[in-house]
């Protein structure tokens, strides 16, 4: 199971991870205005939240990423031309 740690001191409360997560793993704590993990069991370790976080406030533990699922298709096109 994935373990997700959010550094509350680093989190700026922008909500990008909440909006971007395809599985609704996160929610906003409206008192603190910080992101919280709400449904860790639904995390598929795509790391879209990590990629979009401007503060890099998230750490994912106990995952092995064999292939990044969240990548800009234009990057793939460039890589294919290089190879």
Automatic annotation (TrEMBL):
<dbReference type="GO" id="GO:0046872">
    <property type="term" value="F:metal ion binding"/>
</dbReference>
<keyword id="KW-0408">Iron</keyword>
<feature type="domain" description="4Fe-4S ferredoxin-type">
    <location>
        <begin position="2"/>
        <end position="31"/>
    </location>
</feature>
<dbReference type="GO" id="GO:0016491">
    <property type="term" value="F:oxidoreductase activity"/>
</dbReference>
<dbReference type="InterPro" id="IPR017900">
    <property type="entry name" value="4Fe4S_Fe_S_CS"/>
</dbReference>
<feature type="domain" description="4Fe-4S ferredoxin-type">
    <location>
        <begin position="33"/>
        <end position="63"/>
    </location>
</feature>
<dbReference type="InterPro" id="IPR050572">
    <property type="entry name" value="Fe-S_Ferredoxin"/>
</dbReference>
<dbReference type="GO" id="GO:0051539">
    <property type="term" value="F:4 iron, 4 sulfur cluster binding"/>
</dbReference>
<protein>
    <submittedName>
        <fullName>4Fe-4S binding protein</fullName>
    </submittedName>
</protein>
<dbReference type="InterPro" id="IPR017896">
    <property type="entry name" value="4Fe4S_Fe-S-bd"/>
</dbReference>
<dbReference type="Pfam" id="PF13237">
    <property type="entry name" value="Fer4_10"/>
</dbReference>
<keyword id="KW-0004">4Fe-4S</keyword>
<keyword id="KW-0411">Iron-sulfur</keyword>
<keyword id="KW-0479">Metal-binding</keyword>
